[in-house]
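Case study 2.
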Amino acid sequence: MDENILDEGKQFLLSYLKDKNIDYEVSHPWRKSWEFVILHSLRVEGYVKKILDCESHDLSHDEVLNTRLAAILHDIGRMHKREGHALLGRDIVHDWLIKNQTIANGIKDPKKLLYLIEKHSDKEDDESDYCLKVLRDADVLDEIGVMSIFMASNWIDRNNPYFFNLLSDRVKTFEMNFCENGLKLLNTESAKLILNEKIKFITLFNNQLNDELYGTEMFDGVNIADYFGG
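Prediction:
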């Protein structure tokens, strides 16, 4: 299986998604565009590679490439809907392979590729397939860390004078819990190490932010705007 198959997957992802928009996303505006799905998919492939580079495994070269290709294509159905997007994505990729037999013939195990795409979403499902474990772990790792801090800030009114206080509280009460819950979903030791490093960074960030907010903790649990009659 030639590594050029990964480029074929990326080209198909781009051609299929280009100029489409997601209608159901409301929380994070950048997630509405087709570019978001592509960038997310490329990052997930990157995490697959990082995990496999660190893991002690017996996967063949073809199995590694197949898992990376699944990462590139795993969310292609997400442009249409959130619920059931994995099944839809499997069907989209299946149609692509049917119409492009040369590409299909270049994939060592196309059935396994479709299986990985179909099953990637159910993170709590007990799964023995190692490639699927790696793909699911890579998907969990994306948007956690520096990105999660930016995403936390997106829930807060940037015109609020207490923006940083609210951000610190959001990171402490939500993002850290999100990270801990994500840690419980991971299957591979390498993914757990990566996420633990991210948790350390978020903790250091919030500790530093709290240090810079020193003196305002007397208002902890109090609506400050109401306190001042604002």
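The chain has two domains: 4-122, 146-217.
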